[in-house]
Amino acid sequence: MNLQKDASLLDLNTFGLPAKAAFWVQASNVPDLQKLLLQAPKPLLMLGGGSNILFAADWPGTVIQNTIPGIAISRRFKNRVWVRCGAGENWHGLVQWAVQSGFGGIENLSLIPGTAGAAPIQNIGAYGVELKDVLVKVETLETSTGKRKVFFRKDCHFGYRDSIFKSSHKGQYCITHITLSLSTGQHKLSTGYGDISRALAEKEYCNPALLISAPP
């Protein structure tokens, strides 16, 4: 852990605003993040990809950029796999990995900016699919104590672009990992959204599931 003083946030937010943080540090693993939550100068701001934040002023405390990496299959079932992903992974990169691996369920959520750890906060969605449709659990650290806590899908109280991490529990927990349940083999794709239906018809894709049924 290396706290940088008077750090520029210009390249860390997609609006490209010239804000600064009194301190900035990256957290690439859970133990380091636990220490930072307890020891870093307050107030704390957790930052992912910087795509959903607008800096109106400099940050007076510590900006912690969550870069926890890793994408791995945690469990296998007959027709599904559970995929555990570090909060710092790029979301679109995760979607690409899933498609290239032949796993279905999040392909409609491609090109959404941000990190995997931010996805449950907003309950990201696109073209008729939402994160809640595939989420198994969210692993977190309580920001006030550093203690680990797991939220299963039902605990997150997902709504339209909403969750407890955005409302009643805002700022109380830092997400470290998410686990998704993805399909294998023959996929049931969500193609009913108007733009998707039209695009598939134009390209004459009668069975788009075959496009991700097997890895290259």
Structural features:
216 residues; alpha+beta; Uridine Diphospho-n-acetylenolpyruvylglucosamine Reductase, domain 3; four-stranded mixed β-sheet; 4 helices; globular
Question: How would you explain this protein's 3D organization?
Answer:
The structure is a single chain. The protein has 216 residues and is an alpha+beta fold. The protein has two domains: 63 residues, Uridine Diphospho-n-acetylenolpyruvylglucosamine Reductase, domain 2, CATH 3.30.43.10; 113 residues, 2-Layer Sandwich (Uridine Diphospho-n-acetylenolpyruvylglucosamine Reductase, domain 3), CATH 3.30.465.10. It has four helices and eleven strands. The strands form three sheets. Strands 5-6-11-9-10 form a five-stranded antiparallel β-sheet. A four-stranded mixed β-sheet has the order 1-2-4-3, with helices on one face. A hairpin with a 3-residue loop joins strand 5 and strand 6. It is globular and about 55 Å long. The mean pLDDT is 91.
Question: In summary, what is this structure?
Answer:
This protein has helices at residues 30-39, 91-100, 119-122, 194-203; strands at 4-8, 20-27, 44-47, 59-66, 71-76, 80-86, 125-126, 129-130, 135-142, 148-152, 173-183. With 216 residues, the protein is α+β, with helices and mostly antiparallel strands.
